[in-house]
Amino acid sequence: MTPQRILVTGGFGYVGSRLTPHLLQLGHQVRVLDLLLYTRAGLEALHREPAFGSWKTRFELVEGDIRDPETVARAVAGVDAVIHLAAISNDPTGEIDEVLTRQVNFDAVGMLLATARAAGVKRFINASSSSVFGIKDVPNVTEDLEPAPLTAYSRYKMLAEWLVVAASAPAFCTVNLRPATICGYSPRQRFDLTVNKLTADAVRKRVITVHGGEQRRPNVGMTDIVHVYAHLVEAEASRINGRTFNFGFENLKVIEIARLIQTELADLGVAIKVTDTTDHRDYHISSAKILRELAYQPVSSIRQELAHLRRVLEAGTFPDIDAPEHYNLKFMKLARHAGSYRLLSR
Questions:
Q1: Residue 153 annotated as catalytic
Q2: Is pTM, for the whole model, over 0.90?
């Protein structure tokens, strides 16, 4: 492995707070661009890492807004690769203000791509979402099927994929990754994700409330998502340039997830309560392409991730699972910012 200079946007969000130390552990030089919108928990956890003393010369934080051209230009200067995680994340949060969602999840992506390419960045890895598929009544949703986004969040994620593909060039390798719903522990913990929420309720409340239950929810473990981004940094450019990959290995109905948690935490005597739902997103994604063409092998599972999360919860790491900072919809306070257009209007 050749150490690289990597920019991680949103490097102290839910995924970034696990990815940033992972990349440092692998020997890379890491710069994080983050507004630290959802507390400084990820940054503080990095500073507590036993190895941080040896990492800190390879780490840099640019605290700022992904929509600000000057901040973005400073962040991409001198890096080899960008892993773009920063986003208004998840469907309910994206519905708060569609203009805001567009500014962050679409406008800013175009500006970031243009600025990175002009700065000589060689690789751009974009975090999209498998939610772009909406509801699909087919046995397996593969990359060649047309997306059918149901929300502002998934619509702008879908449109941003086209920006990423259009920007690809022999000297600028770009790739889209469409993760399933991510589950597992992070210093910047989220409990507004299916497995995490049900596990937390099982551990702390001994009751799992399932809304609906028959919807299929593809999931992928945090350990896998962290590993695949590192894998894409190293992958041969000709195998990924201008391409899009699904990424999720367990397609379970919500009720099946609840029963799995109930079984894995059998010693707690967890009950399951089923209620009605208006959220009917349902799809079964296939990740055969990334398994076949990039030889990626899963390293985690829902079972492993919920076991890790249980240990963290029982250790008292998150004393209040209902605290607003664990829920994007409750905690996000971000104003509109049309700064991306300063680049467009030059």
A1: yes
A2: yes
